Amino acid sequence: MSFKSRYFLFLLMLLCNLPFNLWQGTSQWGDLHAQGITYKTHLVAQGFSQPTEIVFLPGSNTDMIVLEKTGKAKLVDLTTGRQQTIIDISKDIVSQSEQGLLGIAFSHRYNVDKMFFLSYTTTREDADGKEDISVVAKYEADIKRIKEPIRDMGKALFIQAQPFKNHNGGCIRVLQDGYLYLGLGDGGSGNDPFKNGQNPETNLGKLIRFKSTDITPVVEIYAMGLRNPWKFSADSETGEIYLADVGQSRVEEVNIIQKDGNYGWNVWEGDECFKNNTICRTKEGKAMIQPIHTYRHNLGNSITGGYVYRGAKIPQLYGKYIFGDFGSGRIWTLAKKANQWKPEEILNTKMNISTFGQSDNGFIYFASFGDGKVYRIGK
């Protein structure tokens, strides 16, 4: 299911006055027993409008930033509960369907250079008219010292025209190699009508990277064959990149990304040959990298990627990848055992899980898109 479909599902629930959440504090009706452990969701913050991302200031366990789809970023002090709007570009972005304020990342030297980056969608106009664009922009500011919200659009480092309003991707990370990585969907609509996923001449349907410190960044395609890489992250211990790619009508998938890897879309949807594409049976099709995990739409219909748990509080989760589903609200772990990747469902929240976050001490958080609340996963 596309994020556009998810958004309309959310609106339908609003119109019908259906409750998104019926509790405060610790969840009681999503708990499951996994490996003898009962996992719970602990409410840590609320009052957000359609949250799309959760990050923490570098080195912090308590300074949490929540992005809102419509263009605001809020700094939350988890010790006091105080919230402050630090960014407001809502007048200049477009936020229809899967557009909006979608990502934030920090320089590796943020404590020195105060440099950070935003990923958002906006419009530009030329002689041919207006078009929607994805932008990665650079900012310099000490977020802890901001008194009035930042309202400018920053210095654009990367711009990508978007033919449709869905499959815009938008997740950004500055990883251990110092590069800024950006996930871009195939351009949208359905079925990848322009075959961007398998076209090496476009950035659409790719994971790209560039040196964020360069004045004029040189963009490199790091991996291709992606449909809608809504969220990805790197294991803080191993550096492996886990990327969750949203499926079309049958299969959701998790990939470990290799440089120059081709992950198959739109020849493959997950581990299934997409619409009996004849390339699947060729040497080229068989060489495309298969996901480490897939699930069908009886379990959920829009995967939301998370993080590998490296915290000390829950040793049973250590080294496991935690991810969820926007449609079903399920949360799973994924771990390799005897050379096979094994999933385990640990929570069934019934929420629209739009993003995960990870603090410096390894705690895992997630956001409920429908009611604007943020939770921590615990016992």
Overview of the structural elements:
The chain is mainly beta and about 375 residues long. The chain has a single domain, classed as TolB, C-terminal domain (Neuraminidase, 6 Propeller), CATH 2.120.10. It is built from three helices and 29 strands. The strands form eight sheets. A five-stranded mixed sheet has the order 12-13-14-15-19, with no helix packed on it. A four-stranded antiparallel sheet has the order 3-29-28-27, with no helix packed on it. The protein has a four-stranded antiparallel sheet with strand order 4-5-6-7, with no helix packed on it. The model is unreliable at about 10-30 (pLDDT under 50).
Summarize the SSE layout with pairings.
Layout: H1 3-15, E1 33-34, E2 37-38, E3 40-45, E4 51-56, E5 63-68, E6 72-77, E7 83-88, E8 101-106, H2 110-113, E9 115-126, E10 129-140, E11 155-162, E12 172-174, E13 179-184, E14 206-211, E15 220-224, E16 231-234, E17 241-245, E18 251-257, E19 261-262, E20 268-269, E21 272-273, H3 283-287, E22 293-296, E23 303-308, E24 321-325, E25 330-337, E26 340-348, E27 353-358, E28 364-368, E29 373-378
Parallel strand pairs: 15-19
Antiparallel strand pairs: 1-2, 3-29, 4-5, 5-6, 6-7, 8-9, 9-10, 10-11, 12-13, 13-14, 14-15, 16-17, 17-18, 18-22, 20-21, 23-24, 24-25, 25-26, 27-28, 28-29
